[in-house]
Amino acid sequence: MPETRPYRIFLSGNCQMQFVHDGLRRAYRGSPEIALSFRASYRKKRPGADEDARRCDVHVMQVANLAEDPWRDLVPAAARRIRVPALALPGVFHVFAPRVHPHHEARGRPPFYLTRGNRPLNELVARRRAGEPLDRLVAAYLDERGAEIENAPRLFDMNVAAMRRLGAQADIDPWRAIEPHVRARRHFWSVKHPTRDTAMLLLRPVLDMLGLPYDAEAVAAWAAGPEYHEPYHAPVHPRLAERLGLNWAGADTRYRFFHCDLTAEEHARLYIAGDFRREFALNRAIQQARARVEPEAAAASFRASLSRFRANGQADFWYGRVLYRQERYGLAAHHFRRARDGARTTPHAVPHRADASPAIVEKWLARCRKKLVPKKDTAHAMAARLQRLEAEEARLLAEIRKLDARQRLAALRAADAP
Amino acid sequence: MNEAALLGLIAETVAAETGARRARPMTRDTKAAQVPGWDSLIHARIVLALEDRLGVAIDIGRTYDCGDVGGLADYLASLTAARHA
């Protein structure tokens, strides 16, 4: 390792590689001689963004069956390359997944990846618009037996073949660890967002291949953390789960949709009904609260959505944050208490890194309590008090002077009296 | 099926699977990366649809090695010829 400059590790790829990068940052936190950087392969390059690629010592690059890493050609020929496969189960489990964008209604209807798979579902949406009863359409969705279900095993075989091929082309092959359990355990929350355990199958071999000393405790803590990828978990059609023999998915399985946990049927009902306004309103308010923007609009949305707050307390927490910013400490404390109790007693079944923990909520509650206690000893309060006392003193002195003058006048009058 | 018909079939299938409103013309040199929506996630669905339309079993691994649409058309032509042989 060079002694005069840091050892530069450059990572590129999708959100899976971002997870690896974030994990490496923790692993090498105590090693200032190691410099890490990450560039997303799906974003346009910004001016100057390629500098990290040009001067790296190691390129941890993502390989896919079709796409090529846009940063690959910038990396010096002498740099070491570690090829990491892009993990995905292309649509086979989520063939009927109603994909709803969290806060943008216009982007809510077309699914991002599953155009064809959602065609039967979109036909049900059209029939709903034509006036057919929602219950009948949801029942038709659940009773689907068409080509999508019939072809699923073949598509699944192709997905597996694609993953095996990718593993053979990369320097690490996590698919070998995933494949034996892919029907028994859930490895992906959506098409390409792996669970944290699955994502660790990428991080650990990269650490081993880099061969640098690292903080094993920090890595263990990173592995034990809440889920990393977005809290939208694509539902699996119950018939598809049955056809593919997925032990972890069924009619009663709940899939997280941001602050809610919905079954496949509930997801479909929401999608076919086609009215996401209330869901979007609350999600937008949470986004605004997190970004600390438009507190008035966020507070109004939260107020209008109070009946949709879930027992997990996350919406209460973010409403509390907005109220705190508005200096409405009493009401904020009320929602923080609800959030704390919810986070303790009925947290999300699948915790996400964006979720407020009871400890975090307790901190905000303590802040509220502080604000609610009358100010006593601050310098500003002392100065104001002193000013008030001095004014009172001046008033009393003036009063005394008046009394003295009156007494003297009375004494003079008495002396002058015949 | 001649080459032009095969290229047309691939174009139609890709359009259907990527959700394009209409099939865009494809030449032998067209690459997946040049077609919006034709990513590795959709590729398996395209291959499955081509299997349905042509009535042949396709090795998805071979399709990744084709490089461009021309290579894919040649591979599909070899499969259909073998079926008729």
Which ranges of chain B are low-confidence, i.e. pLDDT below 50, for 5 or more consecutive residues?
none
Shape-level CATH architecture of chain B: Orthogonal Bundle
Query: Biggest interface and which pair forms it?
Result: A-B, 25 and 23 residues
Query: Helical residue percent of chain B?
Result: 55-70%
Report the principal-axis shape of chain B. globular
Q: H/E element string of chain B? A: HHHH
Question: Could you please describe the fold and organization of this structure?
Answer:
The complex is a heterodimer of chains A (418) and B (85). The model of chain A is unreliable at 102-116 (pLDDT under 50). Chain A has helices at residues 15-27, 51-54, 119-129, 134-142, 147-150, 152-169, 175-178, 196-210, 216-223, 238-244, 264-273, 277-291, 295-304, 314-325, 329-345, 358-372, 379-416; strands at residues 7-13, 34-40, 58-63, 80-85, 255-257, 260-262. Among the domains of chain A are: 7-90 and 154-223, Rossmann fold (3-Layer(aba) Sandwich); 277-372, Serine Threonine Protein Phosphatase 5, Tetratricopeptide repeat (Alpha Horseshoe). Helices cover 50% and strands 8% of the residues of chain A. Chain A is of the alpha/beta class. In chain A, a hairpin with a 2-residue loop joins β5 (255-257) and β6. Chain A has 17 helices and 6 strands. The radius of gyration of chain A is 31 Å and the shape is elongated. Chain B is mostly helical. Chain B has one domain (3-84): Non-ribosomal Peptide Synthetase Peptidyl Carrier Protein, Chain A (Orthogonal Bundle), CATH 1.10.1200. Chain B contains 4 helices and no strands. Chain B has helices at residues 3-18, 40-54, 60-65, 69-84. Chain B starts with a helix and ends with a helix. The interface between A and B is medium-sized, with 25 and 23 residues.
